[in-house]
Amino acid sequence: MTCAKCGKAICHDEAGLTCKLINRGATEFFCFDCLGEMFHASREQLEDMIRAFRDAGCTLFL
Ligand SMILES: [Zn+2]
Fold first, then answer.
1. What's the pLDDT at 52?
2. Owning domain of residue 51
C-alpha cells in the first residue's frame, strides 16, 4: 500500500488513521507526512491520535 499523494509506502497505522480522519470507506490512503499537511497536525499529534483510538478499542488499530 502506498500514499495516494506522495507514493511513499505506508504502514497499517497510517492506513487506519486515514480511515479515521477522512472516512471509514477510504480507498486512498496517506502517509503521516501528507495527513499532517492536510490536517495541520504534527507527526506527534498524529501518533497521539492513533494511541487514543487504540485505547478506545478501535479495531482499525489492533
Ligand atoms: Zn504521503
1. 92
2. 12-61
Looking at the domain assignment, is residue 7 inside a domain? Answer: no
CA 3–ligand 1 middle distance (angstroms): 5
Does residue 3 sit within a domain? no
Distance CA 21, CA 3 (A): 15
Region for residue 57 given its phi and psi (left: phi exceeds 0; alpha: psi -120 to 50; beta: otherwise): left
Instruction: Give me the tens of pLDDT residue by residue for the chain, a chain 62 residues long.
Output: 999 999 999 999 999 999 999 987 888 999 999 999 999 999 999 999 999 988 988 877 76
Q: How far is the CA of 53 from the centre of ligand 1 (A)?
A: 21
How far, in Å, from the CA of 10 to the mean position of ligand 1?
8
